[in-house]
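To illustrate the input format used throughout this study, we show a single complete record. The first block contains the structure-token representation of the backbone; no residue identities are included at this stage. The design step must infer an amino acid for every position from geometry alone.
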């Protein structure tokens, strides 16, 4: 697994009591900035490393002696700096600054290259994700499978809520990447998360797009659960074909149903 639960510090702003990080209380008007500063210092010192999980919002608020609103603002600021990433249902994790730099470069490249940018993204996904699925089928652990199952369930129940569906969709694919047990693969997929979110939003607006996506998500999950690498590879290829077709459709246009083979 990429993610760990290290939240302990050894010096400076962070002390430890019983193995738990202890943060200094902050008392000025701009509370969230002090929280950001302390967490940044912990990252610079190496007390917090890429993949480490921050405590839950309520726990952080208690440790800093501030409201949850201040913690929320601090996490938002850390995300904007590229220092943390929040994953729906899993928590907030320290990121690799290199991944953030790559992500920003990709975002800029695609924006500059519009409309070719969406084509470039589709090509990258077609190269990466079928092999990610195949590799995950041979290595995935129950924790990642559970995340994939939960993501499918959330998407089934999302209805017309694009935020819920899209975040669960991202969780599904990131869990698959985690299942491949190769940190470079996960970093590559992390670097295009913003682009993937925009792509999924466009597809969500195409009539039947989410339903077609779910057909393929369930096929991919089934193949990975069976640890069938070739079946997982083919299921992902078919899913990406559907994504490409829906991505080219205009809102209100039905591009067709997924194949049944």
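Output of the design step:
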């Amino acid at each position: 697994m990429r993610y760990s639960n290290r939240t302990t510090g050894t010096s400076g702003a962070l002390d430890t009591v019983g193995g738990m990080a202890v943060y200094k209380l902050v008392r000025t008007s701009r509370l969230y900035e002090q929280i950001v500063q302390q967490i940044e210092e912990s990252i610079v010192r190496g007390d917090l490393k890429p993949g480490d999980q921050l405590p839950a919002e309520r726990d952080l608020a208690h440790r800093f002696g501030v409201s949850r609103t201040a913690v929320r603002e601090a996490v938002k600021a850390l995300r904007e700096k590229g220092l943390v990433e929040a994953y729906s249902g899993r928590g907030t994790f320290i990121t690799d600054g290199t991944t953030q730099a790559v992500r920003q470069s990709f975002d800029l490249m695609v924006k500059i290259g519009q409309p070719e940018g969406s084509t470039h993204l589709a090509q990258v996904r077609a190269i990466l994700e079928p092999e990610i699925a195949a590799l995950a089928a041979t290595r995935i652990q129950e924790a990642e499978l559970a995340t994939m199952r939960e993501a499918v369930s959330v998407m089934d129940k999302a209805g017309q809520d694009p935020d819920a569906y899209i975040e669960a969709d991202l969780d599904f694919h990131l869990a698959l990447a985690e299942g491949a047990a190769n940190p470079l693969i996960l970093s590559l997929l992390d670097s295009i998360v913003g682009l993937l979110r925009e792509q999924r939003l466009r597809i969500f607006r195409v009539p039947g797009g989410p339903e077609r996506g779910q057909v393929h998500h369930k096929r991919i999950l089934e193949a990975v659960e069976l640890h069938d690498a070739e079946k997982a590879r083919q299921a992902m290829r078919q899913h990406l074909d559907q994504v490409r077709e829906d991505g080219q459709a205009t809102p209100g246009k039905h591009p067709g149903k997924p194949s049944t083979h």
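Structural context for interpreting the output: The CA atoms of residues 121 and 162 lie 21 Å apart. The first helix runs from residue 31 to 45.
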